[in-house]
Amino acid sequence: MGLHCGDPNCYQHQHGADGVAAKIRQDIRRVGWSVIGILGNPSFAYTVGMTDKRLPELYFALDVLGTPQALKKASDLLNAVGHHIVTRDRQVNHGSTIELVDADGETWKVLLERRLHTRPLAKASQMYGSRLRVLEVDLVD
Length: 141
Hints:
The protein is of the alpha+beta class. It is built from three helices and six strands, in the order αβββαββαβ. A six-stranded mixed sheet has the order 1-2-3-6-5-4, with helices on both faces. A hairpin with an 8-residue loop joins β2 (about 45-50) and β3. It is globular.
């Protein structure tokens, strides 16, 4: 997971933009994608690397002003959804519902919805341009 955020303790502040780019490439080689978290208003996290597998990138918006702990949970969620899509269900699209268990054993039910506005996903937009497709991950009660 490569986190970039508004916190001075974040990966980008410690390693710079080149360090973040190297971490993203390392994550993609190691697990197939990287997760980037942004602290701010709004706070959100998204994947980079799913496009290389001809799959949509994933985006998750935090309902509240994010904290590093909330971004960690968002990253865990996106990693669990990404793992499910890559290993079990490559045919997901707008309206797909997935039930999964994250690394901590927590059960999550998520709805995937098409996200048309991709501007906040800077690293993914830079890497993939017009090939970029994004599904927003929403938690379902």
